[in-house]
Here is the input.
Amino acid sequence: MREPAVQGFAGRAAIAGIGLTELTRRSGRTELELAVHAARLALGDAGMPPAALDAVLSYHMNDSAPSLQVARALRLETIGWHNDISGGGSQTASILGDAAMLIANGVARNVLIYRAMNGRSGTRMNTASTGPQEHFTLPYGMAGPIPMFALAATRYLHDTGLTAEHLHAVVAQSRQNAAANPRALRRAPLSLDEYLAAPYISAPLRAADCCQETDGACALVLTDARLAPEAPRVRAVVRGGGPGCSAMDRAPDVSAIFSGTVAPMLWAASGMRPGDVDVALLYDAYSWLVPRQLTDFGLVRPAGLGDFLLARGHAGVNPHGGLLSEGYVHGLNNVAQAVRELRAGRETALVTGFGGSYGSAALLTRA
Amino acid sequence: MGADPDPYWTACRRGELAIQRCTACDARVHLPAAECPRCGGTDLPFEPVGGDGIVHTFTIVYRSFVPAFRGREPYVLAWIDLPEGARAFGSVVGCPPERVTVGMRVRVMFENDLPVWRPA
Ligand SMILES: [Zn+2]
Here is the structure.
């Protein structure tokens, strides 16, 4: 028997529609056009007219279209609750909680969530600020997230004994999973020799270990679960973090990421267990985040992690290819895939959002 | 919260690595902070450290995202554990990048008033 869920919104919001634009390297469209396109696809998928929306939520890093502009472009005469949440990958799962709380509390009935970005042709992430520490790191030639998370990755590989071969297993599996996904930006197989021969960007990370810089938008329509009895439910959502790779000057474990903190929160909040998860959509902005989350969430025991990866035990993770191969709409495309999986008959999906050692996680369940 | 880091850079110009010490609890505090993260103390004078360190983690940058550093790759960025009980950021110089390891002993030196680390 499951423990009763402790979150008041558990099961009361449903994801009724998903929309994803074409994922490209050069969209030739504004973020607003991308957002509106994705929103219309999600509304169409939900069978809902735009006018039924009474709330709009998005997250951004000053690189997106504001929610009010999107609402106006959708020709909403009035809008209720709307917010442009400042943040990146840490929001991927928790924005579902924001929407679910609005719905469960009667603040809104139908909530549009979107993330729109020209992540390749417009504002690229690779020089995004790494925070106030920059005064001490920039003079040495450090900028952007890749060297930052490479520093964490070196220590992670050192502590776990994992090697380039294991990172290859993560990326190669992602490519293999993406092979059947027409939306994916990278679908070609990646052999170990090809992987090892590729240059590093910031060792131990090669380009293949980093997610695809992408132009595109993803949207979700959440609604009161009573109005969408067939749609996947938001069962539990947590957001938090602690010491780790976001503040390496003080962290006991510089390779710690959000999942070390939020995984126990998620199991406590949901009354569920790792064994209940039958598909995991893990935020794979970097290859090493996959094994790190697998053990943090208790999906794999640390002792057997290396062999598990080489045996491709993670084949079911990110069945669409994830952020490494499908594309990078700041993680929201992983949530869309979770909905597809639940519609196809899976019972429980885990989706995660990474922002260094801060982030979020959600459990979605079949109606 | 940050603190005025000027005394840190002033010490660097003297060829000295100076790290805050909390006079209330004796903790070393770095990167510079206005309050001690351990006890909240606000008296945090910058005091010299011995200059020894151990590589906690590192990366070798082959493709720099800092325009001024393009063409200077590969170079090593590292977090260095100080025996006094703080962690410093810097580059590791004086050996081929691929020789750097976690746990390697290093010693501070100054290049253009910037503390960098070489194999001890
Ligand atoms: Zn103190």
